[in-house]
Automatic annotation (TrEMBL):
UniProt-recorded name of the protein: UPF0301 protein HKD31_13450
Family membership: Belongs to the UPF0301 (AlgH) family.
Sections of the chain in a coiled coil: none
HAMAP family assigned: UPF0301 (MF_00758)
Pfam family name, one: DUF179
Superkingdom to which the source organism belongs: Bacteria
InterPro entries: AlgH-like (IPR003774)
Length: 204
């Protein structure tokens, strides 16, 4: 796939994007998103289709408040303190108060969505109760809010607005705790030198 410095994917078309299947892939912010909410973000795409558009979670914006213990207390989840903790991210600008847990596929409950056979999305309290009790999936991250695109909108942002790179998802990027490195790691995964972009979108 030919990529240019400004984020264009010159060999792609709308049809090619659909054939690639972006579900389970990462969207990596390109220079076109400098000084916007999505600057230097890495988004895991939980769903993408021609009919329904796309939905994803930002996985590299740590949310300091409320913390996991605060959320558990608000939701009445015990034990308190919890026997196990997971990271909490700002998932996106849509529905800030709604929580999602992105996790490994070794656990599933009612309402869980199998994303790609390796990663699962769950929005029920059951998984939080399991995690608080020291159980649940091997890997997990919680996100408040999400990012969403109408049908055709994401394709336009990728192909015509040059807003996003497409990168493969790895456990280290999706579930890792070093959020400051994830944007660079995602670019390296597609053989792109992050230093080439530093002058365009500034330093984190």
């Amino acid at each position: 796939m030919k990529k240019t410095l400004d984020g264009r994917n010159d060999n792609l078309t709308d049809a090619a994007l659909m054939e690639l299947g972006l579900t389970g892939k990462l969207l990596v912010a390109a220079p076109a998103l400098a000084e916007t909410f999505f600057e230097r973000t890495v988004i895991y795409l939980c769903a993408h289709s021609e009919q329904d558009g796309a939905m994803g979670l930002i996985v590299n914006k740590r949310l300091s408040q409320p913390g996991l213990d605060d959320l558990f207390a608000q939701l009445g989840i015990e034990p308190s303190p919890p026997e196990r903790r997971i990271g909490v991210c700002m998932g996106g600008p849509v529905e800030h108060s709604r929580g999602f847990v992105l996790h490994s596929a070794d656990w599933a409950g009612e309402g869980s969505l199998d994303v790609d056979g390796h990663t699962t999305l769950t929005a029920s309290l059951d998984i939080l109760r399991e995690i608080a009790a020291g159980h649940g999936p091997r890997q997990a991250v919680m996100a408040l809010g999400h990012a969403a695109w109408a049908p055709g909108q994401l394709e336009e942002e990728i192909l015509r607005d040059s807003s996003w790179f497409i990168a493969p998802a790895t456990d280290e990027i999706v579930f890792g705790t070093d959020h400051a490195k994830k944007w660079r790691q995602a670019l390296v995964a597609i053989d792109f030198d992050p230093l080439l972009l530093s002058s365009s979108i500034g330093e984190a």
